[in-house]
Structure to design on (226 residues):
């Protein structure tokens, strides 16, 4: 009996050490550093999502709210995704996002239709998804077209927790200028009716020639599956 308990304890410790090593490596990849963390603004993000699987497609409704560290709300978006299932590694999808941003004098509304192409593959326990997105951004009467490329890695060896890492490159289609980067590390805990995720996000945005704004954002996500 003691041998069995000891063996199980060793296995659990190995799993915990694997989680720690995985997250540590991802932190290095993202490139968080103490100097930028202390100097740059911080925000908080919470999201509640709904997901429904059908035979040939998957519907996802994402809702997210953003707050500053004082708890003041400043942004909300709702996004509908329609992804068409495929037995091949390449699949396609449609999407639409509506975003509300709090400005000093008003609430600004943005409208974002989008087209998605996905490439999915797997290496052992590591799943990889390459999402290519064409996005139109209608804001204050102006149309700004963008191309976004998101790379997602998830580790599926364990049933109770799934570490993941993603990074996304943003370009303006007009001149193909690279102007934004978002990176996220997180842990997803899958349950029968929902998934709970805890993550840490860093993004930097080019707002003037050779000038970049950095933001650090811890967050949570709750996804209900139907």
């Amino acid at each position: 009996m003691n041998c069995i308990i000891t063996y199980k304890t060793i296995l659990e410790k190995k799993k915990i050490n694997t989680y720690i090593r995985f997250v540590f490596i991802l932190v290095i990849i993202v490139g968080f550093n103490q100097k930028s963390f202390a100097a740059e603004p911080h925000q908080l993000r919470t999201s509640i999502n709904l997901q429904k699987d059908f035979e040939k497609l998957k519907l996802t409704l994402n809702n997210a709210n953003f707050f500053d560290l004082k708890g003041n709300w400043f942004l909300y978006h709702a996004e509908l995704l329609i992804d068409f299932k495929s037995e091949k590694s390449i699949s396609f999808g449609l999407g639409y996002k509506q975003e509300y941003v709090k400005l000093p004098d008003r609430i600004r509304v943005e409208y974002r239709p989008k087209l998605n192409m996905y490439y999915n593959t797997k290496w052992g326990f590591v799943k990889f998804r390459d999402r290519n997105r064409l996005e139109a951004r209608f804001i204050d009467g102006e149309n700004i077209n963008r191309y976004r490329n998101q790379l997602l890695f998830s580790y599926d060896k364990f049933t109770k927790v799934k570490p993941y890492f993603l990074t996304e490159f943003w370009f303006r289609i007009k001149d193909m200028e690279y102007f934004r980067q978002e990176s996220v590390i997180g842990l997803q805990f899958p349950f029968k009716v929902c998934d709970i995720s805890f993550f840490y996000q860093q993004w930097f945005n080019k707002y003037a020639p050779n000038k970049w704004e950095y933001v650090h954002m811890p967050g949570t996500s709750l996804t209900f599956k139907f």
User: Anything to note?
Assistant: Helices lie at 2-30, 34-39. The longest helix spans residues 2-30. Confidence is low (pLDDT under 50) at residues 1-5, 33-39.
